[in-house]
Write a structure and sequence with these properties.
By secondary structure, this protein is an alpha+beta fold. The protein has four helices and twelve strands. Strand 4 and strand 5 form a beta hairpin. The longest helix is centred in the first third of the chain and has 24 residues. The N and C termini lie far apart (about 95 Å).
């Protein structure tokens, strides 16, 4: 709408305003913003330094077991893949206070890949798991205490135990080399010292398992 005043043409400012964006355009903008935030979040997690992953693994392992966890090697995470991978070198978990003064678990090198597609079916699949030189120590004293009973498990009463079946993730390719297992049962007066070697591939029927 225009009007002429003194030879000048005045334009109605409301006529030059662009129409308000429809709800579809607003939703597109919101979706784009959420997508950008997700990309930044994934990039931030993927680009996190190894010191962050070392701290996170130690914290979660210590919290879950009530023991002292440590990592004296490197930690590598490759997240930009359909099968993200994790490599941990020099992981150790302390023993029970009453047990032998040695780690309950020590792994020279641990490597695992996770299938992101398996998460869509709510069935976790690890295409590859590698354990190099795992050293495991199992102990039970004369009173029946076991070093594999962690504080939270020992505090549970038998009536509180869950009867639900355990669902373990699937491992397509498992490799265990130079492993060792020591077991001491003072209640039954039994001892065991053995070596562990596992080469298992679901696509290969000639799997090898050895426990000496």
């Amino acid at each position: 709408m225009t009007s002429e005043t003194g030879g000048r043409t005045a334009t109605d400012p409301t006529a030059q305003r662009s129409p308000n964006p429809g709800p579809g355009r607003v939703l597109k903008r919101i979706a784009a913003a959420i997508g950008l935030l997700l990309v930044l979040l994934i990039a931030g997690v993927a680009l996190a330094p190894s010191s962050f992953w070392r701290w996170l693994i130690i914290r979660e392992a210590s919290h879950a077991t009530g023991r002292t966890a440590s990592i004296d090697g490197t930690v590598k995470v490759h997240a930009f893949s359909f099968n993200p991978s994790l490599v941990v070198e020099g992981f150790a978990l302390s023993n029970a206070p009453w047990a032998k003064p040695k780690e309950m678990l020590r792994v020279k090198r641990f490597e695992a890949t996770l299938s992101l597609r398996s998460l869509l079916g709510f069935h976790v699949i690890f295409p590859r798991v590698v354990l190099e030189a795992p050293a495991i120590d199992f102990e039970r004293d004369a009173s029946g205490r076991s070093n594999w009973d962690f504080p939270e498990d020992a505090a549970k009463k038998p009536t509180q135990a869950s009867t639900a079946p355990l669902h373990f993730p699937a491992i397509q390719n498992l490799s265990v080399t130079n492993g060792s297992l020591t077991a001491s049962d003072r209640l039954r007066k039994l001892t065991f010292n053995g070596q562990i070697s596992v080469q298992e591939n679901q696509a290969n029927s000639s799997d090898n398992h050895a426990l000496k």
